[in-house]
Amino acid sequence: MEIDSLREGFDRVAEKRASSSAKALEAVDHIVNEVEQAIVKLQMMNTDSTGNVDHTAILAELKAKLNEMAPINQLEGSQKELNIALSKYLKLLEKSFNPDISKAYRNVDFEVHTVNNIIANHFYRQGLFDLGDMFVRECGESGGASLKLPFQEMYSILEAMKARNLEPALSWAANNHDQLLQNGSMLEFKLYQLQFVEILSKGSRDGSKDEAIQYARTHLVPFASVHKEEFQKLMACLLWVGRLDQSPYSELMSSAHWDKLAEELTHQFCSLLGQSRESPLSVAVSAGFQGLPTLLKLTQVMAAKKQEWQVMKQLPVPIDIGPEFQYHSVFVCPVLREQSSDENPPMRMPCGHVVSKQSIMKLSKSSSRPFKCPYCPSEAVASHCKQLHF
Amino acid sequence: MEMAIDTPSPAPPTPPTPSAAAGRQTRAAESVRLEHQLVRVPLEALRSTVRSNNRLAEKEIAAALSSASAAPAESSAAAVDHLTSLVSRLHGLKRKMEEGARAEEVQVQRCRARLDRLASASTGEDAEWEDMRLKRILVDYMLRMSYYDSATKLAETSGIQDLVDIDVFLDAKRVIDSLQNNEVAPALAWCAENKSRLKKSKSKLEFLLRLQEFVEFVKAKNCIQAIAYARKYLAPWGSIHMKELQRVTATLVFRSNTNCAPYKILFEQDRWDFLVDMFKQDFCKLYGMTLEPLLNIYLQAGLTALKTPLCSEGSCPKEDPLSLEGFRKLAEPLPFSKQHHSKLVCYITKELMDTENPPRVLPNGYVYSEKALQEMAKKNDGKITCPRTGEVCDFSECVRAFIS
């Protein structure tokens, strides 16, 4: 789409609008002018007693002048120009955009309270608590409020981190020590590490050194065997107390660590809550924006079969949406062009190529007779093919 | 199905897939084309402001002209008085027109802001842009559902007032509220304001409002007035809507508590809800909006694209919106998407497996991405533990699988 040509089209509209409204004001000014002149003449006639001008003549002259001006015609002319520019621009919009995106809409009832609960949940998990409360009040649904408290806790931890206060984050991580470990997350250690570096890079040399050592003894030692390398690095930092920025480890002070850790914390927090990392509403709507163009094209092609479109169980064509929306492994047998299933699972031939079980049975005709792989010159025997699990 | 599998072609060349980035960009450009409503609504609002300003100017100027020519001719003093009051009236008109022009200017700016917004979208992956887009769509939803306070708050706190149409919907709210209070006057005024365009789209709204007013007279047992009303306001519609007109005028012989079905419904209170719906439809059409909230349209498309038979299984990952009950419920009446090509997601990293991160098969037949296995091997002295079966093997035992 050419945004520039749209802008040009709209500039014309704006220009014609401005000139039309200026012309209208001008017309009023002209009328005022003429009327005022007539008033002056009438007043002069009063003082001038020669009496050779008749006031009816002045009024007639005013009338004639106003008629000659024909202000209404002028207005109509400039309005017409504006209307032409407008309808041209409207046509351009119709051409540049999809004028009716509801063509692919299936007429089904979207249960209002389900949608409202999804929205309320979305607001809470985005940290928009006041808005969420207001929305819940206005729409009268309360099912979405369950996420409010946990996400309030998460956002207060993140707020504190922004103010360089790690205490709430550390206490949360300590409380969820086991689950974090199970998730294979190093979050807790990384938080202690950040706090340790923070102590080292702040304050006077001697005071902070003692404090740092004390801190390392209580909090870092338990992780020493698991994160050996990092632990050693951190201990070496003690040599540069107060001037860590000049050490080979200055990278540890980068504020990027804070951002990354905040992200990791969000991730783990959601994971422990059993929530996805992204708001599901954002995901579904983004997928909608990517998928809708294809759906609209499809309905256009199927225009004659509108009834069929409303009831079909599976789309006849794939919808191309980004890889970020792929949550499930799908195997489509390249020979049969069919999606695999429990009855027809994917099989790997000894050469490494994968086709479906049915294809192999068709190719081999018996389990012991060798057959040629459809993708390379090597031969395979059905009994040597192995079922895969994705 | 007839398949030429007896003479398989040697390794078919994989079709040149456009790079992921290019795909993303075309998709982004395609989604911008969906934003018709974003640019259309403020333009319609501008159009209607311009129209009513023009109407005012024309009417007042014509009145001024006739007033100027009708100046009393008896004495010059009377003429001066008359003309002086005309001048002050014209000054008043000018002030009103200037005010109107300022209102137009605000709407011009709004139209521009929308174009600027779309221009900034061309790059593709932009989380901030997508977030704003979702917010716009949520404001649209809340305005249509009459959650005005939440809509306003969301627009204000995210600074997107120029990108949403709160004033347009507040205008509609006046009409909707009055209809809910069983008043037709504001709705009729709205019809009069947009008369020519409603006529062009063959709107029945005004006729329906008139019918309702007629029925209200009948309900109040005010038959004489009802007949007079019908003569004046219903008769002109006779040529287009004769059948309905006949049916409604027949209510004259019934009481409002009649059990005669075709007339009973005409007396019912929910006719007002029907009028609200009809008004909403015409209102949306007039402004070039979709009849459904944008949110519903995009959610439906998104859920269709995401819906696979695998989503209903217990192992559906929580990142998939369709793992949640609410989304599943919404997706129930929607079709499944279809896949033409294999797409494999690594069980461990949840990343797509492709040529850069190919799938590898453990001796037990379970498949994981190379990256995930390398990572695991690095940490465990080359040993791999299958996360689904617990079997242990050596990284070197994991073989490549070629998926086309």
From TrEMBL, chain A:
It is found in: Cytoplasm. The keyword Cell membrane does not apply. The keyword Cell membrane does not apply. A zinc finger (RING-Gid-type) spans 333-376. Residues 333-376 form the RING-Gid-type domain. Residues 150-207 form the CTLH domain. It holds the Pfam family CTLH. GO terms for cellular component: cytoplasm; GID complex; nucleus. GO terms for biological process: proteasome-mediated ubiquitin-dependent protein catabolic process. Gene3D superfamilies: Zinc/RING finger domain, C3HC4 (zinc finger) (3.30.40.10). One of its GO terms (molecular function) is ubiquitin protein ligase activity. InterPro entries: CRA_dom, CTLH/CRA, CTLH_C, Fyv10_fam, LisH, Rmd5_dRing, ZF_RING_GID, Znf-RING_euk. Keywords: Cytoplasm, Metal-binding, Zinc, Zinc-finger. This is RING-Gid-type domain-containing protein.
Automatic annotation (TrEMBL), chain B:
Pfam families: CTLH, zf-RING_UBOX. InterPro entries: CRA_dom (IPR013144), CTLH/CRA (IPR024964), CTLH_C (IPR006595), Fyv10_fam (IPR045098), LisH (IPR006594), ZF_RING_GID (IPR044063), Znf-RING_euk (IPR027370). Residues 316-389 form the RING-Gid-type domain. The keyword Zinc-finger applies. Its main location: cytoplasm. One of its GO terms (biological process) is proteasome-mediated ubiquitin-dependent protein catabolic process. A zinc finger (RING-Gid-type) spans 316-389. It is found in: Cytoplasm. One of its GO terms (cellular component) is GID complex. Residues 168-225 form the CTLH domain. Residues 1-30 are annotated as: Disordered. Keywords: Cytoplasm, Metal-binding, Zinc, Zinc-finger. One of its GO terms (molecular function) is ubiquitin protein ligase activity. Residues 9-18 have a biased composition (Pro residues). It comes from the Eukaryota. This is LisH domain-containing protein. It comes from Setaria viridis.
